[in-house]
Write a structure and sequence with these properties.
Distance between the termini: 63 Å
Oligomer: single chain
Number of helices: 3
Largest sheet: 2 strands, antiparallel
Strand order of the largest sheet: 1-2
Number of strands: 2
Structural class: mainly alpha
Helix content: 25-40%
C-alpha cells in the first residue's frame, strides 16, 4: 500500500490551487494510490540489464537519395505571385507596420 492519504491529496490540491470537495478527495486518494502502486511495480521490473526503448520494435529512418534536379528560375517562381519586388515575393505586413 502506498502512502497516499486524504491529507496529502488536499495538500496537493492546495499546491495546484484546485479546490477539491470531500468526495473528490476520497476518489483521488484511491486513484492516486493505484497509480503510485503501479509505478512501484514497474520500477521493480526495470533493471540495468534491460535497455531503455522508445519503440517496441527497432525503427530506422528511410530517406531518398538527395539528388540535384531541375529547379525553377527566380522568374518562373515569381510568375504567379500576386506581387513581387526585387526578385522576391512581396507580402503585406502582418504586424501592422512596414519593416
Amino acid at each position: 500500500m502506498s502512502e497516499i492519504t486524504p491529507d496529502l491529496v488536499r495538500h496537493l490540491g492546495v499546491l495546484a490551487r484546485i479546490q477539491l470537495s470531500d468526495e473528490e478527495v476520497e476518489r483521488l486518494t484511491g486513484q492516486l494510490d493505484v497509480i503510485v502502486d503501479n509505478i512501484a511495480k514497474v520500477s521493480q521490473v526495470a533493471t540495468p540489464d534491460v535497455a531503455a526503448t522508445s519503440h517496441p520494435i527497432p525503427m530506422e529512418n528511410v530517406f531518398r537519395a538527395d539528388e540535384v534536379g531541375t529547379t525553377l528560375t527566380p522568374e518562373q517562381a515569381l510568375s504567379n505571385a500576386p506581387d513581387s519586388a526585387d526578385g522576391r515575393f512581396r507580402v503585406t505586413a502582418i504586424l501592422g507596420e512596414e519593416q
